[in-house]
Design brief:
The complex is a heterodimer of chains A (about 220) and B (about 240). Chain A has about 220 residues and is of the alpha/beta class. Chain A has nine helices and five strands; from the N terminus they run H-H-H-H-E-H-E-H-E-H-E-H-E-H. Helices cover about 50% and strands about 10% of the residues of chain A. A five-stranded parallel sheet of chain A has the order 2-1-3-4-5, with helices on both faces. Chain A is globular. The two termini of chain A are about 25 Å apart. Chain B is α+β, with helices and mostly antiparallel strands and about 240 residues long. Chain B contains seven helices and eleven strands. Chain B has helices at about 25-30, 40-50, 90-95, 110-120, 125-155, 175-180, 230-235; strands at about 1-5, 10-15, 60-65, 70-75, 75-80, 85, 100-105, 160-165, 190-195, 200, 205-210. In chain B, the strands form three sheets. A six-stranded antiparallel sheet of chain B has the order 1-2-3-7-11-8. In chain B, a hairpin with a 5-residue loop joins strand 9 (about 190-195) and strand 10 (about 200). The chains are: A alpha/beta (about 220), B alpha+beta (about 240). The interface between A and B is medium-sized, with 33 and 34 residues.
Chain lengths: ~220, ~240
Amino acid sequence: MNDILQRIATAVERGKTDRDAPYPPDLRGEEGAAELTARALQQGIPPERVLADALVQGMQAVGDRFERGQAFLPDLLIAARAMTAAMAHLRPAFESGAVQHRGTFVVGTVAGDLHDIGKRIVAMVMEGNGWKVVDLGINVPAARFLEAIPGQDRCVVGLSALLTTTMPAMENTVRTIKAQHPEVPVFVGGAPVTAEFGARIGADGYFPNPQGLVRHLGRRGV
Amino acid sequence: MREDPIGSRLEEFRLDVAALDLRPARVAAAAGYPGGHAPEPFAHMIRETLEAVAAHADVRAGFRLFPPGALTLEDRAFRLAGVGFEAGAIIGRSLRGSTAAAVFAATVGRAYDDWIRAHFDRNDLVRGFLIDAIGSEIAEAAAEWLDAQIVAGAAARGLAATNRLSPGYCGWCVAEQHKLFGFLPERFLGITLTATSMMIPLKSVSGVVGLGSAVERGDYPCRMCDLGHCYRRRAEFEE
């Protein structure tokens, strides 16, 4: 791998956002993911290569460590933050169509549920893995998902519920989406949710953490 | 302290968050780090955030204590001061021997929720996540402190206490939270419930402690529960 691409991947994996970021200590004062990405583009490296061979590689590396139990949610989040800083330099390429997102991830916490953090973590990790994210927020009725899906490229939906009392709303949302958009994959997560529950309500999968969803979508070739 | 005609007694406390002595290792464990050993930069972030907590946390706790005879057990259910609870087999077993009870709540306050949200809104999820984890541990620590008061008070009357038992855990449906809060004054400690039984502020804990002369307190509540997907089980039991 090109040296600068390798350095970008390392900066993302270790959460080195930019030169000013004090962490990790051994990279203090060095360029972070943002500056390195800008420099790679100035050197003429195609933006799709920067995305695929550096940024996504960095996220994948921390994701692999997460799955092996060698990294934890804060590690994933700090890496996603570095990835987001780097992505700002790729925005023109996304806007011109030179680089495409992997797809659109429409995400929200279901009606009646005000829990935010789990959903935000999943959204940030998905964004860090090259997905365009449409975050509908918390307490989202099924109808708002229906409004958000049309026109989205390669749309995937993520639903979060943190209470047993809001699991019926999750079921209603899955069934409502599937009735209108059977082709759109819907994934569920949240503390009381299980794979069995997800299957019973017609969801396409349940994941206890965002990395599992990223990996699943990768296996599906998305 | 207030006492009502049926002999129940209400007590409320405002706690100094520093007195709860929340250690960085406990927060690191709650954030997922085995043994409470968070690497840098997270260890530093946890210490830094703990130092800032006092400005945002308004920790309050309280309980209503019901006298002997107020609680009756019915296998998978119990009845407290005439109100029936379908709490399930695990809770039923845990309350065995109880004749009295304390209904309790503790909260970190609304300003703390705002502090978490402010970090999320400016996309600082790392710090927001740690503040959220710390808030959960403060609420738990406040409930532990309250539990110690209940246990000591019961012991002074010759009674033993069960573990703290909360709706939403050990198979007890969280919807029964509404009945539990029916025993507490409206907006007790500033806590309100949504229709779906969420407590607002989010960093709040509630539940019941059974009291009696022949009750047993388990040394580790997760061992008696088979709720495999519970986040507390994942955090503590499977390590």
